[in-house]
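Whiteboard transcription, Tuesday session. T.W. wrote the C-alpha cells on the left side:
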C-alpha cells in the first residue's frame, strides 16, 4: 500500500518537497466536495418532493461554502509560486510560464472539451443545474471563452461547461502577474509591507463590492480575490527565512491549528449570510489570520504535522487539480442517475446519500484523470518525450510499410 502511494505521489523537480503543503491542498478540497455534493442532494430532493424551503432552512445554508476551499487554494498558490523567488532560486520568465503552460493546460483543455462533447455532441442536459439553465449563449461560445480563461469577463458568470473553473480563470491572472508582483514585494525589506499589501487588498475588494456590488465584474478578476494570493506570499516570505517545518514541533501549535481549522470552516458558513461589503472585509481579515494559524499548526504541531504528511492525505491533495476539474461533471451525472432510481425520504437523507456516493465517485474519477492525464504532464520534459515517441512510432510504421512493399 505504501509503495503504491509513493508511486502516486505528485512528482516534483524540487528537492525541498514539503508533504504538509499537499495536506493543505486536501484541506482545501474538502469543503469544495462537501458543498457541491450536498448541494446536488438537496436540489434533487427538492425537485422530487416539490418542497420549496426557505433559504435559511436548507442544509446547504449551514455548510461551509466551496468558496472557502478556493481561498485556501489561492493561499497555497501564492505560497508555492513565491517560494523559488524568495529563496533565491528565481526561475527565468520563460521557464516560469512554460512550466505552467505544460503542466496546467493539457488537463484543463481536455476536461473542458470532454464537458463540451457531453453537453453539445451527446446532448446531455444536466438536471437541477441553475448555472447551466440560467445562462444565455451557445455552448460553442462558452467553450471558446473558457479555453481563453475569459468566461467570467465575457459573461460575468461561472463557465457553463464546468462552473468551478471560474477560480482557475482567477488563478491564471495571478500566474501572469506573479513574477512581477512577488519581485516587487520581495524588494520591500520589511515583512510588514507584504502584510500591509494583504490588508490593502482586503480593503480594495470591499470598496469595489461597495461601488459595483458583490456580483460586479471585479469579482471575475484577481482584484476581488488578491488577498488570498498575497497572504500566501507573505507567509512564504517568513518561511523562506525561518523554515518552520524544520523547527521542533509543540503541542501548543496543535491547539492553535485545530482551533483555527474549526473557525475557518465557520467562516465558510458566513458566505451564505448576505454580508455587507464592510462585514465581508472583516470576515476576510479574520479568515486570513485563521489561515496563518492553520499553517503554523501544520508546520509546528505534533499531531497536525504528522496528519498532514500522511501519504493518503498527501496523495489526495496532490491530485486536487484533477479532482477539481472533473468533480462537478461527475457529481452531476451520477446524481442524475442515482436520484432517478432512489427517492430519498428527506433533504437530510438526500444530502447524506449524496456525500456517501458523489464524493467517492469524484475522488475515484479524479484519481483516474490524475494518473492518465495530469501526472504525466508534471514531468517538465513531457513534450520532448512525446515528440520522441511519435517520431519513433512514425519510423517504425514507415519501416514496416517499406518492408511490406519490398516483400510484395
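and on the right, the sequence the group agreed on:
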Amino acid at each position: 500500500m505504501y509503495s503504491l502511494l509513493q508511486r502516486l505521489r505528485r512528482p516534483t523537480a524540487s528537492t525541498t518537497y514539503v508533504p504538509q503543503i499537499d495536506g493543505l491542498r486536501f484541506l482545501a478540497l474538502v469543503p469544495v466536495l462537501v458543498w457541491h455534493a450536498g448541494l446536488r442532494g438537496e436540489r434533487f430532493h427538492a425537485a422530487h418532493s416539490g418542497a420549496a424551503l426557505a433559504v435559511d432552512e436548507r442544509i446547504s445554508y449551514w455548510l461551509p461554502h466551496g468558496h472557502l476551499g478556493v481561498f485556501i487554494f489561492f493561499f497555497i498558490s501564492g505560497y508555492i509560486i513565491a517560494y523559488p523567488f524568495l529563496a533565491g532560486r528565481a526561475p527565468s520568465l520563460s521557464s516560469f510560464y512554460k512550466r505552467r503552460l505544460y503542466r496546467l493546460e493539457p488537463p484543463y483543455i481536455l476536461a473542458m472539451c470532454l464537458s463540451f462533447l457531453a453537453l453539445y455532441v451527446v446532448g446531455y442536459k444536466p438536471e437541477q443545474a441553475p448555472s447551466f439553465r440560467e445562462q444565455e449563449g451557445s455552448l460553442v461560445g462558452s467553450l471558446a471563452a473558457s479555453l481563453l480563461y475569459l468566461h467570467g469577463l465575457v459573461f460575468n458568470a461561472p463557465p457553463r461547461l464546468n462552473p468551478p473553473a471560474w477560480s482557475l480563470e482567477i488563478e491564471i491572472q495571478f500566474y501572469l502577474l506573479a513574477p512581477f508582483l512577488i519581485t516587487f514585494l520581495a524588494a520591500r525589506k520589511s515583512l510588514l509591507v507584504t502584510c500591509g499589501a494583504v490588508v490593502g487588498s482586503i480593503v480594495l475588494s470591499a470598496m469595489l463590492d461597495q461601488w459595483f456590488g458583490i456580483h460586479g465584474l471585479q469579482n471575475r478578476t484577481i482584484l476581488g480575490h488578491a488577498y488570498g494570493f498575497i497572504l500566501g506570499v507573505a507567509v512564504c516570505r517568513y518561511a523562506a527565512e525561518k523554515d518552520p517545518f524544520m523547527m521542533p514541533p509543540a503541542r501548543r501549535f496543535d491547539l492553535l491549528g485545530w482551533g483555527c481549522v474549526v473557525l475557518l470552516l465557520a467562516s465558510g458558513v458566513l458566505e451564505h449570510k448576505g454580508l455587507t461589503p464592510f462585514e465581508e472585509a472583516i470576515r476576510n481579515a479574520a479568515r486570513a489570520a485563521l489561515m496563518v494559524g492553520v499553517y503554523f499548526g501544520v508546520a509546528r504541531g505534533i499531531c497536525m504535522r504528522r496528519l498532514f504528511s500522511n501519504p493518503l492525505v498527501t496523495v489526495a491533495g496532490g491530485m486536487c487539480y484533477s479532482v477539481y476539474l472533473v468533480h462537478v461533471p461527475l457529481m452531476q451525472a451520477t446524481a442524475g442517475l442515482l436520484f432517478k432510481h432512489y427517492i430519498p425520504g428527506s433533504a437530510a437523507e438526500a444530502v447524506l446519500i449524496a456525500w456517501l456516493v458523489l464524493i467517492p465517485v469524484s475522488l475515484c474519477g479524479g484519481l483516474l484523470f490524475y494518473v492518465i492525464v495530469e501526472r504525466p504532464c508534471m514531468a517538465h520534459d513531457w513534450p520532448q518525450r512525446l515528440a520522441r515517441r511519435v517520431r519513433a512510432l512514425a519510423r517504425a510504421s514507415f519501416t514496416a510499410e517499406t518492408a511490406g512493399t519490398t516483400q510484395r
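Someone added at the bottom: The chain has one domain: 2-377.
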